[in-house]
Write a structure and sequence with these properties.
Helix 6 packs antiparallel against helix 7. About 75% of the residues lie in helices and about 5% in strands. The longest helix has 29 residues. It starts with a helix and ends with a helix. It contains 11 helices and 2 strands. About 30% of the residues are buried. It is elongated and about 55 Å long. It has 2 domains: about 80 residues, Orthogonal Bundle (Arc Repressor Mutant, subunit A), CATH 1.10.10; about 140 residues, GntR ligand-binding domain-like (Four Helix Bundle (Hemerythrin (Met), subunit A), Up-down Bundle).
Length: about 230
């Protein structure tokens, strides 16, 4: 045991590269840095107060995660989401969330309805305060909670693979949705169907909810692409 203790080293603060990575990743996922935005090293290093070395390392990791792309002689930008990207993402999201709803109703875990209603009321309060950032956060929490309440560990692992991109798209969608209260109320029928253990209705509603979000953002992406001449 003594040797084992001496083999372990004290955990220091995360490397600067990791802190830069967290800041940039969060900005992309939250929609503060939007698809197509240029990521110029000089501007970013000055804004973040860091040298270019950790910044470049962070950008390389973001590139492997598919959040940014670098084109030789053209620089690095936040990766543009294509129509196909969004359609694939939302079709997979629908599969994952409908499976989660079926599992929740079958398992009937304790206090699951209260947890979901809690998310709804928090989201509604944030919406009534016109707090877009909190609405986005609670919206994400609601859908992640559905996955967690399923009690299916492999489902949760699969969700984690797509959750970053789902967060990014949801934030960009809600950013263009002026009716924050409606965002909150869109979740209420889903909870009510789960509470009533109406599996078919709950699945229909979650499919409709996910499909509507996907179709809306695909439509907006097409408008944006047209406006940009792409």
């Amino acid at each position: 045991m003594k040797n084992r203790k001496t083999a372990l080293q004290h955990i220091e603060n995360p490397p600067l590269r990791e802190r830069v990575l967290d800041v940039l990743r969060e900005a992309i996922i939250n929609g503060d840095l939007k698809p197509g935005d240029a990521l110029r090293e000089t501007e970013l290093s000055e804004s973040l107060g860091v040298s270019r070395a950790p910044l470049r390392e962070a950008l390389q990791i973001l590139s492997t995660e598919g959040l940014v792309e670098t084109v030789p002689y053209h620089g690095t930008t936040v990766r543009v989401l294509t129509k196909t990207d969004i359609e694939e993402l939302y079709s997979l999201r629908s599969v994952l969330e409908t499976f989660a709803v079926r599992q929740i109703i079958a398992r009937n875990p304790p206090d699951h309805v209260q947890v979901l209603y809690g998310c709804f009321h928090e989201m509604l309060a944030a919406a009534e305060n016109n707090d877009l950032k909190s609405v986005n956060q609670i919206d994400r929490n609601f859908h992640t909670t559905l996955i967690e309440l399923s009690g299916h560990s492999l489902l949760q692992t699969s969700w984690n693979v797509v959750s970053m991109r789902v967060r990014q798209v949801m934030a960009l969608l809600n950013r263009r949705n002026s009716n924050l209260t409606q965002i909150a109320y869109n979740h209420l029928p889903i909870i009510q169907a789960i509470e009533a253990t109406h599996e078919q209705e709950a699945v229909r509603l979650i499919e409709k909810h996910v499909a509507a979000s996907g179709e809306l953002i695909v439509e907006r992406w097409q408008v944006m692409d047209g406006a940009n001449g792409t």
